[in-house]
Amino acid sequence: MRTSSWARPLVAAAALAAACERAASSAPPPPAAAAPPGGPVIAYERTVGGNQDLYVTGTDGKERRLTDAPGTDMLPRWSRDGKTIYFASERTGNWQLYAMPAEGGPARRLRTNAFREWQVEPSPDERSIAFLSNQGGPEQLWVMDLASQAQRMIVAHGRKTIFGNPSWSPDGRRLTYSSNAEVGHQIYVANADGTGEERLTGYRRGGCEPRFHPDGRHVLHISRGHLAEKSRIVQRDLTTGEEKVLVDWPALNYTPTYSPDASEVAFTSNITGDWVVYRQRLADGKSWRVTFGPGAARSPEYKP
Questions:
Q1: With 64 labelled, which of 17, 73, 185, 197 sits at a CA distance of 20 to 30 A?
Q2: In total, how many domains does the chain have?
Q3: What is the pLDDT of residue 30?
Q4: Mean pLDDT in the chain?
Q5: What is the sign, positive or negative, of the torsion defined by CA atoms of 248, 204, 170, 147?
Q6: Residue 97 counted as domain residue
Q7: Is the per-residue pLDDT at 81 higher than 90?
Q8: Residue 263: domain span
């Protein structure tokens, strides 16, 4: 899995998942109860009948399909006002960036070119998007102003580098992302213009799929040993460097994200043998299963 989380082609995805360092320890299997009514609204990707589309569950827990175009749709990201969902799709035969009404409707293409572009993340003020593109040759991290379409490459790590999961800080001043430019996949943070880049993870530990905490002082990410059958979800304090394990199930646990109030995390796990979306409350570790039925579900994203 690419630090992207399941959105890459399968071969690349598997190779990247193996790149997340540090094995997780065993823990009792989690409960698989459905969440009670009145929970948060969560968007995610689900594969049904061989096609991956975007879905959302409402406060009533009922699932609603958002996209149905041929080709893979992946990694939904809400706008801060909750009215728009950004995502990437290969519906035209090439990965490109899209946005659509959160209530459903036609998707509009944000950029049109012959490059491979995906993993789009809107900025907190919704004026810009961060995304990955190979328009410069190797894959790089880019930012584009939505109004003017002005774009700039902000981080490049070499010819064979694979990036993953750009995530904005709440104030829009920084981005966190992963890259395999050094030893395995590592977590980085940089200013929104690409300056001041800092590697957060150590060579022996590594990490992938980072997401900023709503307080801007912590980063969530995946920690996995090479080819291990388990992975942990870890929270890192950007000031002290201290790490806290939030999810340590005996499974592959991926695509974590915080709820808007940071009281819980949602993530994907194969604890049941298939990919399922869960929520876990941070105060007491209580967890709920979000998705049921046939078809792998991944990459949850809370509505703001």
A1: 17
A2: 1
A3: 55
A4: 88
A5: negative
A6: yes
A7: yes
A8: 10-302
